[in-house]
């Protein structure tokens, strides 16, 4: 963990989180915040937690299809590695939970970490394009109140930027697959200004990465990949909808879609482990655009974040204990 403590990105993220939290809490009356919490209908939080874990289970299902060209993996191992990875994402900086997730499954199933990471890149691409589809749905089905045009335009602009980033990754993967040596030589030239140790790690890693960057040739499994992606994000929308209901905010589903897309953009911004601050700000400003009072909006943001933060940490740590692993050891392996 010492190497992580000296990471400038970690401290930058912590600074961003502190600044955003200070901004959010400074502009809210504590009494208004307390009133919002007192009025919460706790029964709605139960299905919110259930749907959150169902989305993790569906992620394990989709991951099984992504790994099928490499190996028929054990579903319990997939679920365990997924929960450990998301727990680590909430406790470690720079989304190291993705590497932790890949390492844990690689050790359980005897697959090279590079190949597993490749499947997670495709996993994230599937997430990205599904979220873009949901973004289009939200833009065309949701009409923000007058005076919120800037928020809607910002959402559309964010969608274009995200689409550009994901298309760039797709182009790189296609080039890497079709012209492996040419792409590697180009990457070597791009890495020359950097220390030699970086190229020594990246270039060999790409060999294992290419082996894992394959999509199943079976059309039924490809359809299952598409269907599971839609189900994953459908389950991700319902916890937000349930929390809004818990606070007596009877918005239609497109509002929950809108908030979820904002949250997806928020976790791309540098922040402390667990996306503290950025996650809350995205939710608060999204709800403010819909006319929700500031204190109520911050209360909703705290609960939505808590549901995505604490339950998976508890279950992930239990899986870690069952696998006889330690988070400290996994984080060191992830940053190597």
Automatic annotation (TrEMBL):
Its main location: membrane. It is found in: Cell membrane. It comes from Geobacter metallireducens (strain ATCC 53774 / DSM 7210 / GS-15). The chain crosses the membrane at residues 40-58, 125-144, 156-176, 223-241, 247-267, 298-321. The keyword Membrane applies. Keywords: Cell membrane, Membrane, Transmembrane, Transmembrane helix. This is Membrane protein, putative. Pfam families: LPG_synthase_TM (PF03706). It is a multi-pass membrane protein. GO terms for cellular component: plasma membrane.
């Amino acid at each position: 963990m010492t190497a992580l403590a000296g990471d400038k990105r970690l401290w930058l993220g912590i600074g961003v989180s502190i600044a955003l939290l200070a901004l959010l809490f400074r502009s809210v009356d504590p009494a208004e915040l307390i009133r919002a919490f007192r009025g919460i209908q706790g029964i709605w939080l139960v299905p919110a937690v259930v749907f959150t874990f169902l989305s993790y289970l569906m992620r394990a299902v989709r991951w099984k299809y992504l790994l099928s060209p490499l190996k028929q993996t054990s579903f319990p191992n997939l679920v365990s590695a997924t929960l450990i990875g998301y727990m680590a994402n909430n406790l470690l900086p720079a989304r190291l939970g993705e590497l932790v997730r890949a390492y844990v499954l690689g050790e359980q199933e005897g697959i090279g970490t590079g190949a597993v990471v490749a499947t997670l890149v495709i996993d994230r691409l599937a997430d990205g394009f599904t979220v873009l589809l949901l973004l289009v749905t939200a833009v065309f089905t949701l009409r923000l109140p007058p005076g919120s045009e800037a928020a809607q335009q910002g959402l559309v602009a964010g969608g274009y930027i995200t689409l550009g980033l994901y298309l760039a990754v797709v182009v790189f993967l296609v080039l890497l697959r079709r012209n492996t040596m040419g792409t590697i030589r180009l990457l070597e030239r791009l890495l020359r200004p950097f220390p030699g140790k970086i190229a020594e790690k990246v270039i060999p890693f790409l060999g294992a990465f290419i082996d894992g960057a394959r999509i199943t040739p079976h059309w039924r499994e490809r359809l299952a990949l598409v269907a599971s992606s839609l189900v994953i994000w459908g389950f991700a929308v319902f916890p937000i909808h349930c929390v809004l209901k818990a606070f007596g905010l009877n918005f239609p589903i497109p509002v929950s879609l809108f908030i979820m897309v904002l949250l997806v953009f928020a976790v791309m911004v540098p922040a402390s482990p667990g996306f503290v601050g950025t996650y809350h700000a995205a939710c608060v400003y999204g709800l403010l655009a819909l006319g929700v009072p500031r204190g109520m909006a911050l209360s909703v943001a705290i609960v939505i974040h808590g549901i995505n933060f604490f339950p998976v940490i508890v279950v992930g740590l239990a899986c870690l204990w069952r696998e006889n692993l330690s988070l400290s050891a996994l984080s060191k392996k992830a940053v190597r």
